[in-house]
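in:
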């Protein structure tokens, strides 16, 4: 069955999804490109052939400490070789990679280890003490594998790094349940038995990623080999960039995030591209790396690109080496896209930033703007073999073309389900009348007659003011277009009469001084562009907006701050009322006492 958007692909593509694990698919890349660089880390290069050897050794090491097919191991790491080697080694032996943020709090790490029943956890020495503390709350035995960045540095960097960080982080672990990365690999080198042969199973959980899900609470998302391999093969088609030897991506998006792991790592390795692993960065160092390393592809969240526009260091840099720039993880406003595209053109790049859309429930992207057919406000066309429909929220009933509804999608990258949460899985994965299982994203949007998809808002984030629906992203787009505004965030604040009222938080451009006149200027500007019920009742200026761990604007933090202000105001009002009531009760007594005194 054809879809209305099929005509917009440059050519018809029939994708073969091989019955292979993730490891088996990149092993094919290694056979085709053995001497290509698979990844680079701090200028140390690893070829695809060497990468296969490292995976084999790590797989033997995992087996030597008792990890078997079906067991989970938590990877609590930034983008570095030990994490990549372990990820594919786990897949090599049929185990599960449980991916978490290394900056997670102690209780969060405990939760992740327990819900996944992880038998081991890999982390860096700098996070070791936190992981030890988290392990105390584990409801089962967990082995800690402690790695060190220096273990994977080139020799000329290793010694200075160790000297600089001497005594700063955990040395040799003292706990009986812990092992260093070097000892771990040594066990692997001495393991006498051959590794088990793992066959592809379409419904086997290979990876667990974490997300707020479609309802806002943390959930483990079970993803299969097919999910990741389909993403890689579909992305290769949708990106419309032919393979060339020596191509490189600047892999800054973290591997515990679907975008970083699925696009920045797996898709590139499947294509034979080099992943330049970046464990941490600032906007300044990112700009420096962009100029120095000259990657062909970059992928990031909108806030990263917004920050790049402000940073110094790229003024005279020729960016013609870029062949693909992709934005995901959050909505890219029309205004920011225009600014980024102008920046690229001014720096001699022949491309434009391309926005993708997806959720962790389908690994990451499942929709991408075409290279040569951008439609303002659109998040693009569905991936090959992926079907998008727009439904009345909470139902399987499709709405007419052009009308708002919930974005639902079906395809080979859609998750197996939520870990140990059948109720939420049943609400999110639903079989429609065409027999396909659709992921109900919890996002509002619409589709035009040509199949281009337009994202409006998270259903849960939508503001209802005086009975009208207000989409914060639309108001943000308008505010961001103001010549003195850098970025904004709009939230709903509880109101007794309107249910919710709109408030805007604004970061102004450099050298613009926030004052009442600027606030009024923005409000006057908004009056010409938004409806009465979408008008902010207040604008609060900030030097910066709070961000999530993956760089999205953390609007929930702002919502919580406002709720706290309201709670404090209500508490203060209650105290004042109590004092007033007390004074009222005391007044008659005072009058009586006064009368007695006068009578005397």
């Amino acid at each position: 069955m054809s879809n209305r958007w099929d005509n917009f692909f440059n050519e018809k593509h029939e994708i073969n999804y091989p019955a292979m694990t993730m490891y088996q698919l990149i092993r094919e890349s290694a056979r085709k490109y053995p001497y290509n660089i698979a990844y680079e880390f701090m200028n140390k290069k690893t070829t695809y052939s060497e990468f296969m050897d490292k995976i084999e050794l790590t797989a033997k090491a995992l087996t030597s400490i008792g990890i078997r097919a079906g067991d989970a191991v938590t990877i609590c790491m930034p983008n570095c070789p030990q994490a990549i080697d372990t990820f594919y080694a786990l897949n090599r032996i049929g185990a599960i990679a449980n991916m978490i943020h290394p900056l997670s709090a102690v209780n969060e790490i405990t939760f992740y280890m327990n819900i996944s029943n992880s038998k081991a956890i890999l982390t860096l020495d700098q996070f070791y003490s936190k992981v030890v503390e988290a392990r105390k709350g584990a409801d089962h035995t967990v082995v800690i594998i402690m790695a060190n960045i220096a273990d994977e540095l080139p020799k000329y960097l290793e010694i200075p790094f160790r000297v600089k960080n001497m005594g700063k982080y955990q040395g040799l672990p003292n706990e009986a349940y812990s092992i260093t990365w070097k000892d771990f690999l040594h066990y692997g080198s001495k393991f006498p038995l051959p590794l088990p042969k793992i066959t592809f199973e379409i419904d086997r959980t290979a990876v667990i990623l974490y997300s707020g899900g479609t309802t806002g609470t943390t959930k483990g998302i079970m993803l299969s080999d097919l999910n990741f391999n389909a993403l890689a093969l579909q992305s290769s088609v949708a990106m419309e960039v032919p393979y060339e030897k020596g191509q490189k991506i600047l892999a800054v998006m973290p591997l515990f995030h679907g975008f970083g792991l699925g696009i920045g790592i797996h898709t590139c390795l499947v294509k034979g591209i080099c992943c330049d692993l970046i464990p941490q960065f600032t906007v300044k160092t990112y700009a420096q790396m962009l100029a120095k390393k000259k990657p062909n592809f970059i992928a990031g969240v909108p806030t990263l690109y917004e920050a790049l526009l402000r940073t110094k260091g790229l003024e005279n840099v020729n960016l013609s080496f870029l062949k693909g720039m992709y934005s995901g993880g959050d909505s890219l406003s029309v205004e920011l896209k225009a600014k980024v595209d102008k920046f690229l053109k001014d720096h001699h790049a022949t491309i434009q930033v391309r926005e993708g859309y997806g959720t962790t429930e389908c690994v990451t992207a499942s929709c991408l703007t075409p290279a040569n057919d951008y439609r303002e406000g659109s998040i693009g066309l569905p991936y090959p073999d992926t079907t998008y429909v727009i439904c009345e929220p909470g139902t399987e009933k499709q709405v007419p073309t052009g009308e708002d509804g919930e974005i639902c999608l079906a395809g080979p990258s859609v998750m197996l389900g939520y870990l140990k949460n059948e109720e939420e899985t049943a609400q999110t994965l639903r079989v429609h009348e065409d027999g396909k299982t659709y992921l109900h994203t919890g996002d509002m949007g619409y589709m035009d007659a040509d199949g281009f998809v337009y994202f409006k808002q998270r259903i849960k984030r939508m503001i209802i003011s005086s009975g009208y629906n207000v989409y914060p992203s639309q108001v943000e787009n308008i505010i961001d277009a103001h010549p003195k505004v850098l970025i904004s965030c709009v939230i709903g604040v509880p109101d007794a009469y309107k249910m919710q009222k709109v408030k805007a938080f604004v970061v102004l451009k450099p050298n613009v001084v926030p004052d009442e006149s600027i606030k009024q200027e923005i409000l006057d500007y908004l009056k010409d562009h938004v409806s009465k019920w979408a008008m902010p009742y207040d604008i609060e200026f900030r030097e910066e907006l709070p961000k999530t761990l993956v760089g999205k604007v953390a609007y929930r933090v702002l919502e919580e701050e406002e709720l706290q202000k309201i709670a404090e105001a209500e508490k203060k009002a209650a105290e004042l009322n109590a004092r007033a009531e007390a004074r009222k009760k005391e007044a008659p007594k005072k009058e009586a006492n006064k009368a007695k005194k006068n009578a005397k």
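note: Residues 555-599 form the longest helix (45 residues).
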